[in-house]
Design brief:
The chain is α+β, with helices and mostly antiparallel strands. The protein is about 45% helix and about 25% strand. The protein has four helices and six strands, in the order βββαββαβαα.
Length: about 140
């Protein structure tokens, strides 16, 4: 009598509500080759999961030559994965500046004026560096 083929289970970890914009819970468990869950699913709070996953990740900010800013994890594998999933949104520098101004609009001058002056100085230095590079390339 032939033995039945063994059922191979693979561990999984995924959002409980895949369609939700913001996750409140994740679930972990085992699935078979048809992606059917077996046994008890373990619910995990999103905050705990995200802290555990991100605790060892370092992100830098990358500025493309067109003035768009993008987060960039230090792990190349994670970068490629997040990029393919569309989770590394680019934002234009001018949009970031407009958002910073809007967020600080109602702050008292004592709290925000020095910060806006620093932002202005950095933007002037950045604009000057770009102008220099354009001039160098035009010869």
């Amino acid at each position: 009598m032939a033995k039945p083929a063994p059922t191979i289970l693979t561990p999984f970890f995924r959002p409980r509500d895949e369609g939700a914009e913001e996750q409140e819970m994740y679930v972990a468990g085992f699935v078979d080759k048809e992606d059917q869950a077996w046994g008890t699913l373990i619910p995990l709070e999103a905050g705990m999961v995200e802290q555990a996953v991100m605790a060892h990740q370092t992100f830098r900010v990358w500025c493309n030559s067109d003035g768009c800013i993008q987060p960039q994890p230090s792990s190349d594998g994670l970068f490629e994965h997040l990029l393919q999933k569309g989770q590394l949104k680019e934002t234009a520098i001018d949009e970031l500046v407009a958002e910073a101004i809007e967020q600080g609009r109602n702050e008292p001058n004592d709290d925000i004026l020095d910060m806006f002056e620093t932002l202005h100085e950095r933007l002037v230095r950045g604009a000057s560096a770009v102008a220099d590079e354009i001039a160098r390339r035009r010869g």
